[in-house]
Each structure stands twice: as structure tokens, then as C-alpha cells.
């Protein structure tokens, strides 16, 4: 058993509805992108430490991470989550309602690049798990929205290089994303306002503290 598989085996079974959502998301016919178990466990631990009262999530997908965050934060925590695809956002809204968190989680439909410009107030925690190639473009505004002492969590920062078996278009797209992620990592690891560590959970997760 590989080290990562062993570590994942130590994670206790998820509560509902997260367990069912993971089963649905992993099915080849109903696949949806959600964070892997080790990333989910890291998020839970960070939430217990940070105890955020206001969270911004960029990239809702089917609402798994938003629900996980709602289950592991104080009752009065506000979660705003952004999703560009309307049909996917509607699935997330339904999942959030079924989980009983419709008063705690607000799904905003539209392009994150536009929405973050009209959001107001500060956030204790920001979770970026959307369009990986745009992380570096989001960063200046994200840092404005993140309060001093807040935590920025960025998922998939060690996204894999394309492989030779993929077609030229897919390889080029992936190569571009990888290059942009490397530029993003260089910025956040050397930014004067941030203290950053990169953890090899899932496809890599960066945790940045705003000084």
C-alpha cells in the first residue's frame, strides 16, 4: 500500500450527506469534481483551528466542500460560494437545501472574476477551488477580501503535467494551466503579505496566512 493510500485509510468514514455525495460524484455516470478524502480531512482540521465566521469559496461544483465547511464551522458562519455553470449551481443549491444549510450557504451564479469585484466586507477564510488557470488573476482581489490574520486555501496547486497519450489540444491546455499554477505558487510563496506552505494532499493544497 502506498503512503497516501495508507493515510487515506486512516480517515474516519464521512457523515451524511457527504458520504452519499462522494459515492455519486465518483460514479462514472454521475461524475462530479469534489475534493479527495485527504483534502477534505485537511479542510476539516483547518476549519476547527481557524473557526471562521465568514468564508468565500470560489468553485462550488455540486456543493460538497460548501456543505463540509458548513458542518465544521460555528452555527453563525456565513459561506458565500461562487459557481460559473448555472446547471451545476442548481444541483449544488438542491444538495445544500437537502443538507439543511440553505440559511448558512449562499450560492452565487456567474464568473468569479466578475463577482469578486463587487463583493464587500472581509473574509476570515477563502477557499479557491475553481478555474486553476485563473488563480493568479484572482489573487490581487482575493487578498483585498481576505482579512489580516485570515487564511487562503488553494486547491490543486500541484496539478499534473499533461501526458503524451493526450491529444495536442488537451496537452496544450494542461501545459498552460501547469505553467500558470507554477507562477501562482511562486507569487504566494514569496509574497510579502503571506506565509505559505504547500501540502501534498490530493493534487496539492497551498495554505497561506495573511500577515
Tell me what you see in this structure:
With 211 residues, the protein is an alpha/beta fold. It has one domain (3-210): 3-Layer(aba) Sandwich (Rossmann fold). The chain contains 8 helices and 7 strands. Strands 3-2-1-4-5-7-6 form a 7-stranded mixed sheet, with helices on both faces. Helix 6 (112-118) runs parallel beside helix 7. The longest helix is centred in the C-terminal third of the chain and has 23 residues, at 168-190. The mean pLDDT is 91.
Strand and helix map with partners:
Elements: H1 3-9, H2 18-26, H3 37-50, E1 54-58, H4 64-71, E2 78-83, H5 86-99, E3 105-109, H6 112-118, E4 123-128, H7 135-145, E5 146-155, H8 168-190, E6 194-199, E7 205-210
Parallel strand pairs: 1-2, 1-4, 2-3, 4-5
Antiparallel strand pairs: 5-7, 6-7
Helix pairs in contact: 6-7
Averaged pLDDT: 91
* Rg calc: 17 Å
Number of strands: 7
Q: Ranges with pLDDT <50 over ≥5 residues?
A: none
Describe the global form: globular
CATH topology: Rossmann fold
The profile of the biggest β sheet is: 7 strands, mixed
Q: What's the helix count?
A: 8
Quaternary structure state of the chains depicted = single chain
Q: Helix proportion of residues, in percent?
A: 40-55%
Task: Give the strand line-up of the largest sheet.
Answer: 3-2-1-4-5-7-6
Element pattern in H and E: HHHEHEHEHEHEHEE
Q: Brief description of this entry?
A:
The protein has 211 residues and is an alpha/beta fold. It is 44% helix and 21% strand.
